[in-house]
């Protein structure tokens, strides 16, 4: 596919995505619980279902494949024993793909977990000696998982007895955690790979944005709030043809990605968490609508008007004007609607560039607006990735998918302030956290190993 990119038009389109995202949430709260980086009122008591981040990118060392990562149960203090951080065995953890643009899920990869607990009434310990392999008898608690690929044509079990990498107890218990991670990676029948286990919290940012946007004078910046914490990660690396419409990534290179959690409520599974683009429900939805957003399927997004105004007249832009005097762009913000709900394509709206909308797929039908993280698989990995992604002319970066090193906070702040329209960055508008404290890996699953050092060192 030939891509003609108007780089000026695409500058700063990041927050467009985040700002537009949750604006179309269906207003229902029957699920009972919600999640995503603790932004919804009902998440505090249900961290195992809290879907915190989604990443999607063309694999840098295997560019004919795509890597998908999703995280849960954020802010894990590494020393939080004795039970540490297991996956919930009454949940379904999903990564979903829409490859034709109708907002309905075409492919679901679904992980379910089961316990293997040998502690009984004899000990409180997670392990009773050094653990050197996933099958080490010293590991008293482990979790196994099943991975299924679900399509309208049927369900295929890809993994039936995988072992999740355990929580990183510490150097005495797990002297070589990298070996445990390596053993947990499973090959798939189609040549892909999967992984489940604990990882470093790779989302770098200063969350003091909630203190009147960094203290009201940008004095509260430069502190990586998530540094030292861990998360639970599921990862998938699959050939592009496994994700593309009609199995043809050349004709149909664009996919939409979301991750969800289904919780069993005693009689059925209900969706209690949804995450597609980063920071959507945190900084767009008002408090009263956050739980409803997490229960919503993307196919319902376009039916709801209650949050649309949060996109066309975003609150963050008005706050930046009120607090910092950065004049908010004129409304309605149709550029944000295009960026986030339809993907970037010349035919979709004011941004005259073709980037990551499913309308670019030659075999796609009518596009239905929906909040998804969209990735154009035909754009190869960048030789020199830029943390600001598309904003800096790096077209493989956010919001064209999301890499581990993309600085989504800075991208989004700049975009909501109008950089997408002006083509100019706003000086000084940054949280001054530019990278993760740990380097990323060079091969799947790329996300760093979990920490085993206490966050509080005082």
From TrEMBL:
InterPro entries: DUF4331
Signal peptide bounds: 1-25
Name this protein carries in UniProt: DUF4331 domain-containing protein
A Pfam family matched in the record: DUF4331
Alphabetical keyword list: Signal
